[in-house]
Structures are given as C-alpha cells and as structure tokens.
Amino acid sequence: MDALTRRKFLLASGVVGGGAIVAGAAGLGIAELLDTAAKAPKEETAKTGKLVIVTLYGGNDGLNTVIPYGDQRYYAARPELAYQPEKVLRLDGALGLNPMMPGLKRLWDEKRLAIALGVGYPKPDRSHFRSMDIWQSASPSGPVETGWVGRWLDGTNAAPEAAVSFESVLPPLLAGETRTGACVSTGGLRLPDGLTTDMLAQLGRSQPEESPAQARAAAAYADLIKVDQLVKHAEQTASTPGLEDVMELPATGTGGSSTLAAELSLIAKCIEVGVPTQVYSVSLGGFDTHAEERAGHERLLRQLDQALSGFATRMARTEAGQRVMVVVYSEFGRRVRANASDGTDHGTAGPVFVLGPSVAGGFYGEQPSLSDLDDGDLKATMDFRDIFGTALAAVLDAEPARYLHGYEAEILPLIPPS
C-alpha cells in the first residue's frame, strides 16, 4: 500500500487529528496485562484504590430499575409497564428494586450498595451521543476532546495500564491530551469488510516524512495485530495458572453467556494478582427501550444483576478487593410516561449505583418528584460530577476540581474514612 493511499485511509477512518488520541491508545493483551502484576510493588498496589466504571448504553429506564412503588403517579403514567408493589424488591417504604435484581437487593441488605437518586446535569440533552459525551468528558457546558479519567492520566503522567477498557473500542472517558488508557479485547480482532490482516499490517508500517500524528495513528494498527495475537495466545493457554477462570465465561442464567460477567471476572483476576491498573471500564448496551420494553429490560437487568453481585461477592473475599468501588451509570433515564409502543422514550435524570466491600450503602440524594416535572421529564436532584468527584477523591486520591474543569464537587460519604 503506497503512502498516499495509506494517508487517505488514516484520514477517512478518523484516526488523524483529534481522533488520533483514541486510535493511538496502547494495546494490551490479557496475558500481557496480567504480567504487569509482576513488575508492580506489592505493598503499594495492595493499598491502591480501584475504580470500576460500568456504562449502560442506550439510556436505562431508572423508574423501572429503582421503582417508586409507593407513588400512585408511577402507575398512572405507565399502567402497562409499572410493577405492582408485591413484585418489587422493597428497599424502604417508597422505593424498591426491579424484581430481576435479587443480587443487588442482597448487597443492599448487607449495606454494600449505594443508590444515588435523580442524577443528571444542567440543561439535559436527549441525544445519546451528546449526553454520553457529557458524562464521559464531565463537561456539560460544551464539547471537549478529553475524558475525565484521561485528564487524570495526563495529570499523573500515568502508564497506559493505569486505566484499562475491556470494550471493543477505547471510550472517550479514557482519552487524555498526552496519555490514554489501554484497550484490551476479550473477543479477538474483528476487521471491517474488505480489510485483511495483511492490509492492517501495511497500515502499521512507518512511512518517511509523515507527521507525528500520522505516525502515532499508524502505530495503533500495529498494536491491533499485537493485541489480537496476545488474546489468541491467552485463549490457547487457558490452563496457565491464573488464566483458567479468566477465560471461562460465566453463565447468565438465561441460556447464554454474559460478556459483562466475563469482563468483570477478568477485572477480578487482575485485582487479585496485583495488576497496577486503577481504573477499569466495561459496558453493557441495549437500554434504548422504545418498544416492548418489559421483556428486554428485564433480561438486561438480570444480566447486570448477576454480573455485579457475583463480582462484588468475589471482591469481598480478598484483601485486594476491599478497596474496589464500582460505579454504574447510563447517559440518561427515560420519560415518565410510557409511549404507545409499550416502551419509553429518552428522558433525563436516573439512579446511579455505587457498590463495593467498603462502600457505605444506602440512598444518597433525593428521589425526583413525579408531579413536579420538566416537560414530562424528571428534574435532576444531584449533579453526576459529585459522584465522579467522590470517586476521584476517595478512590484515586486526586483533587476533583483539577479533572472536572474546575467543578467543586460535593464529596459524598460513600467511602467512610479508614
């Protein structure tokens, strides 16, 4: 492939210029990531907080996740979708969990699950892309090119393995100006139609007189091949001590496998063996429930419940897992009133789950009113940056305002002083 064609491909694929930051992310394989544990100081790693960020893509229906079963306005607004009080897993006299979430109910009873109520941001945007960009950049006022974790990587001059994503592409959350997190694929390399591994290898070769941005983007293609080889090697050597439970995909209880559960199992192994990563990012999609919501939403919540409760139980058994905080969020909630297709449309505020062995469980903030609405939507009662600011301060030992564009976060007592 000649240099001109190569440059056109780089430009067309969006990896030159602003996109080069994400495309130039470090590539790590499973085995390589686990190997970083051998190089990390054991005592220091054991005392380091771990933050696991779970993104629910599509806009989770918060009202059918944390259910206001004590409010008749909930039943009036969505008569076909509402859960009757006897079905709800009650948390107190007004709110309860979806019946598909017994694992999280157990964590609640053990005071290891915190639920932040009515979380959102000023002037909500109902676009999936813009709203997710706001959450991941922590910048409601306008678009920025970095994520709040990426800025933390910049500020601490961190190694790529300090923040790791187990998603198919690196989320903007982990992209900084000078540093990015690492992207670890658990499913191998999947190329677009018409692109072969040989072509990818050619794209990864250096070219004379190319700009630093183009060179960095090209190196990312070479990294993709390296990652794919390392993942395949890890899969073939699943009998290696420490890898067998990573490669096994836990069952969801619905006849399939849960990618989220597998990714959290991998994170658990990384934490247990002392990998120095401090921030992990995983995700679960499918929450854009515009029609026939009940069955699909229940399936997703069951999958989420089993993955999170299993991970939390595993972390509670080990010393390394005691400093783990899991934050679960979605880009927005859904409209209060159901639509004509037995689904819900894009809304605004919703609940955020925070869990872990050292998390102080309970409700945080105030449940939004179902009578005082903003054009049919819930009014946010908590700014999402208060949660991320708390994670920065309590888990990453960082100054929140430095990485939240000057926002002075209210630090929530999610992690009691030790």
Automatic annotation (TrEMBL):
The lineage of its organism: Bacteria, Bacillati, Actinomycetota, Actinomycetes, Micromonosporales. It holds the Pfam family DUF1501. InterPro entries: DUF1501 (IPR010869), TAT_signal (IPR006311). This is DUF1501 domain-containing protein. It comes from the Bacteria.
